Amino acid sequence: MPEHSHLILTTVTIRKTLLVAFLLVSLLPSILLTFLAFQVAGEAMRNEIKQSLQIQAATVSQDIDKMLFERLQNAQTWRQLEVTQDIRVNDIDKRLSNFLSGLKTGYHDMYQELLCTDSFGTVVASSNPASIGTKKYQTKSAFLNRNGSGASPIQLEPLQISRSNGTTILPIAATVPSTFDQGQLGEMYLMFNWTQIYHILDQAAQSGHALILLDKDGRIIAASAELRNNGALLKKTPASWSSGGQSGIGTHDGSLLHYKEVMVGYDHSPGFQQFPGFNWTTLVIENSQHAFIPVRQIAIVFILLLVLTSAFAIGFSMLVAGRIARPITALTAFTRHFMRDKKLPEAPHLAEGEVGELTKAFVQTVTELEQSQANLVRASKLAVLGELAAVMAHEIRTPIGILRSSAQMLSREPGLSSEAQELTGFIESETERLNRLVSTLLDSARTRPPKLQPVDLQPVIHHSVDLLASQALKKSIDISLHLETKSTVVMADAEQITQVLLNLILNALQILPDHGQVTITSHETSKKLVIEISDNGPGIPQDALTRVFDPFFTKREGGVGLGLAVVQQIIIAHGGEIHAGNRTTGGAIFTITLPMEENT
Question: Taking a C-beta distance cutoff of 8 angstroms, is the pair 254, 262 a contact?
């Protein structure tokens, strides 16, 4: 049997392994499709990032051109106002200065200062009174030309970056024409606050990018806050960052900006409306490590999904394999426990299908085997008991009879003392007890085969109770009957069944204290008659439940331990079963099952 159980378990293990391997192989297409999907999604994400950098560069470039175009429009409009003619009289009544102060206030922080100079470069009017009378500006830049030919009345001064206070100014110069002749009175200067460009770049950088504004020579003239703080202003970027067309995208070495690698989207200034632009270039820079975080996140998501899918598939396969193998494994464990402990363990749960049928048949076989072993042991004990009873019948009864007769004769002697009378009484009672013991042994060893005939057990049960009514009355024990009203006819030997009932009821009466309770019930189930005899006494100890029917086993003082062995022998001879147990409410219960008569 152990070799068979080992073979079964090995077969189950191989099947489980093959099932898991099959599911893993079936997962390979899913794994490959997941990998390809990740590659496609990653490439699409990279292209989307590059496209967004290029679009953002074009948007920021257009915003800068729009802002500067509006400033040039301011210069073009203001230089032709009538109030600017006060330059001729050096703004003696401060009308022009007050006008410039009002413009600066109205535009808030757009301009650092607004001023006008005469033809010699001396400041005659300004929004800042401290500048009046100074000679600060001398136009050196080329005039802006909208159409590429001829001179423009508006020009840009070089960008002024102050290292001391951190302010940056872009002077916009516009000639002021004279209304009295064809000459020029002087120039108007709009000191554009370059911080406004920083604001545009900083706002765009909130998306996590860095931005740079390059002049035509590739120098950084504006940058977002992070790069400004790192000293990037006025540095030159590699020409490759913004070459190759009006706009584009590229991946470059980012050591200039303290990055390992950067993705750069660039856009050359396209101008705004009729304004051709300043030939500046806007760069939107993304650290490649940061740019591909979404790609890596997608990769992690795909990997997690793949791991979860694989884990679910493996877990599901193990669950299926376990459900297949669990009944056989339980049957194998059942067999091992039975072979190791030499007693019947708890039967495994019955599965459905062929495995369930196999388990049921195997458990039944093992149960019958154990029952056969128990019957063989009991038969051996009874055989020994029979031999002992035969010896006692021939060798013990004769001297017991002599002792009893001698004691009776001595008790009749005249003049016998009271002590002698008491001793002879002891001899008589003890020899009588020994004679009963020998009779009991003979009855146990030589139980005759039952004479089976249809018997209604209800009268038999009532008769047995009536025989023991006086003993129950002495201890005020109540014997209650709850018998099924249907026919209780079985094939039995009425005398032997009476012996069984008397033995069980008498055991209950002997163990119960005064005012105890004995209950006898009967009912039919599956063509079998079930009789239960229970009490509310101390019950049967757990360690004695499996031995109560063994010959010579007893827990009652003075008992021989043969009564229940005889009871079981009689019930088995009738083709029935008897079991001992304890009630949940306390007390012992003996359950007898007898086959009903076929014709009932």
Answer: yes
CA gap 83, 114 in Å, rounded = 14
- Residue 299's closest CA among 34, 50, 30? 34
CA distance 73 to 62: 16
Say how far apart CA 456 and CA 524 lie, in whole Å: 13
The amino acid at 596: M
Cβ–Cβ under 8 Å, residues 177 and 80 = yes
Angle subtended by helix axes 353-395 and 563-573, to nearest 10: 120
Alpha helix ranges (H) inside 79-110: 95-106
Q: Which amino acid is at 39?
A: Q
Note the pLDDT of residue 410.
Answer: 78
Q: According to the model, what pLDDT value does residue 146 have? A: 36
What is the distance between the alpha carbons of residues 184 and 176, in angstroms, rounded to a whole number? 6
The confidence score (pLDDT) of residue 519 equals 92
DSSP output for 157-178: PPPEE-TTT--EEEEEEEEEE-
Residues 427, 429, 434, 439: is their CA dihedral positive or negative?
A: positive
Three-class HEC string of 280-340: CEEEEEEEHHHHCHHHHHHHHHHHHHHHHHHHHHHHHHHHHHHHHHHHHHHHHHHHHHHHH
Instruction: Give the pairing of strands 111-118 and 184-193.
Output: antiparallel
Q: ∠517-523-527 over CA atoms, to 5°?
A: 150
Q: Is 383 in a helix, a strand, or coil?
A: helix
Q: Spell out a b/e string for 448-469, using b for 16 or more CB atoms within 10 Å of the CB, else e.
A: eebeeeebebbebbeebbeebe
Measured between its terminal Cα atoms, the distance across the chain in Å is 43
Average pLDDT by stretches of 10, the chain with 600 residues: 48 55 60 64 71 86 89 92 91 93 92 92 92 72 39 81 74 90 88 92 87 88 87 83 75 76 83 72 82 68 76 72 67 70 64 65 71 66 62 68 78 77 78 71 65 88 87 89 80 87 88 90 87 90 80 62 79 89 88 77
Rounded to 10 deg, the angle between the 2-78 and 293-341 helix axes is 170
Asked if 331 and 360 touch (Cβ cutoff 8 Å), the reply is no
What DSSP state is assigned to residue 84?
G
User: What does the pLDDT read at residue 495?
Assistant: 85
Tokens encoding 54: 């290029």
Angle at 451 between CA 534 and CA 389, to 5 degrees: 75
Backbone angles phi, psi at 308, to 5 degrees: -65, -40
CB 416 within 8 A of CB 410: yes
Helix 353-395 and helix 397-412, axial crossing angle in degrees, nearest 10 = 50
Rg (CA), the chain: 58
Which candidate, 181, 154, 157, places its Cα nearest to that of 171?
Answer: 157
Q: β-strands 478-483, 517-525: how paired?
A: parallel
Report the alpha-carbon distance of residue 337 to residue 370 in Å, rounded: 13
* Neighbouring C-alpha atoms within 13 Å toward the C-beta of 538: 12
Its pTM stands at 0.47
Tokens of 148: 């590429």
3-state helix, strand, coil in the chain (%, to 5): 50, 20, 30
Are 212 and 285 a contacting pair, CB within 8 Å? yes
Separation in Å, CA 85 to CA 90, 125, 135, 385: 9, 11, 19, 148
The C-alpha atoms of residue 531 and residue 381 are separated, in whole angstroms, by: 27
- Report whether 539 contacts 549 (CB < 8 A): no
